[in-house]
Automatic annotation (TrEMBL):
This is Nucleotidyltransferase domain protein. GO terms for molecular function: nucleotidyltransferase activity. InterPro entries: NT_sf, Polymerase_NTP_transf_dom, Type_VII_TA_antitoxin. It comes from the Bacteria. PANTHER family: NUCLEOTIDYLTRANSFERASE, PROTEIN ADENYLYLTRANSFERASE MNTA-RELATED. Residues 13-94 form the Polymerase nucleotidyl transferase domain. The lineage of its organism: Bacteria, Bacillati, Bacillota, Clostridia, Lachnospirales. Pfam families: NTP_transf_2. Keywords: Transferase.
């Protein structure tokens, strides 16, 4: 998945993080794999490219019988809200950088 993000967002990527139950190590067979890329750029531009990431994550999920849940977050937004919003705070605190 990290390579997929790099292929689509290139040098604008600040970091790619695994978070949630897989990062904490408390996942089970019903857990999805949560991945967030922090990327420089506007939310609209980043979201427009996200469909390509979703397509690849769906293929990976089908091949491995797991749900992969990728997302992209604008870097400026993440920096502003990583201590204010629980979702961003979880990524900042428990996320494992994978790319």
């Amino acid at each position: 998945m990290a390579q997929c993000y790099h292929d689509i967002y290139g040098a604008d990527i600040v970091g790619i993080f695994l978070y949630g139950s897989y990062a904490r190590g408390d996942y089970d067979n019903q857990s999805d794999i949560d991945i967030a890329a922090i990327v420089k750029g506007s939310r609209l531009d980043l979201q427009n490219k996200l469909k390509a990431v979703w397509d690849i994550s769906a293929d990976i999920g089908l091949e491995n019988d797991v749900v992969v849940s990728p997302t992209v977050i604008p870097y400026d937004e993440f920096e502003e809200y990583k201590e204010k919003l629980p979702y961003y705070r979880n990524i900042a605190r428990e996320g494992m950088q994978i790319g």
